[in-house]
Amino acid sequence: MSDSFLPIDDAPPARRTQQERRDSTRQKLLDATVECLVELGYARTTTIAVAQRAEVSHGALFKHFPTKAALLAAAVERLFPRLIARYRAELADLPAAPEDRIAEAIERLWFIYQRPELLAAIELYVAARTDAELAAALSVVDPPHRRHLHHVARELFPEVADAHPGFDSLVELILNAVQGAAVGGAALPPNPDHRGMLTLLVQLSRRAFSAPA
């Protein structure tokens, strides 16, 4: 049959619901916020800049987020699960022994903390020290994010998590060590001592994972 005789579908495209349009606008604003934080930093990220990047009116932005602090916290809340999903995907094929698995898990964690969007999010936590409104907004986001991280750690190391009562404390130690080194080196030349720190962190974690509870 010739293409000229193919039936033509004259049905108009399905119109999006009001909720779908709202969700789409919200997602564009959150993505634009992360992009602004990465490119401009916290100090130069304004609601006007975010609205322009998202191609949304300034007034529409405030219909979704009543304050800049609420916008920034929501952007971080949207970003964290994406980064965790990426981390889990990169750890799909891990060694069987937990002592060997921890080395790859820490190495991947280090690379995740080098990502510019995560460093931009951490910059918000530093800024919150002198911004009470931002601190209040982030205080709602952080606890569930931290619980999510511990849940992922237990999925990656179930045998250790069940056997060692100090497992969660070890997870906190690893997270804080890697995060601290990443933040400390964000605005400085690469620090060769960081590689040694990671090697020592792996060694300490291996001993903790292999030692009896």
From TrEMBL:
InterPro entries: DNA-bd_HTH_TetR-type_CS (IPR023772), Homeodomain-like_sf (IPR009057), HTH-type_TetR-like_transc_reg (IPR050109), HTH_TetR (IPR001647). Gene3D superfamilies: Tetracycline Repressor, domain 2. Keywords: DNA-binding. Pfam families: TetR_N. Residues 46-65 bind DNA. Residues 1-26 are annotated as: Disordered. Residues 23-83 form the HTH tetR-type domain. GO terms for molecular function: DNA-binding transcription factor activity; transcription cis-regulatory region binding. Residues 17-26 have a biased composition (Basic and acidic residues). PANTHER family: HTH-TYPE TRANSCRIPTIONAL REGULATOR PKSA (PTHR30055:SF226), HTH-TYPE TRANSCRIPTIONAL REGULATOR RUTR (PTHR30055). This is TetR family transcriptional regulator.
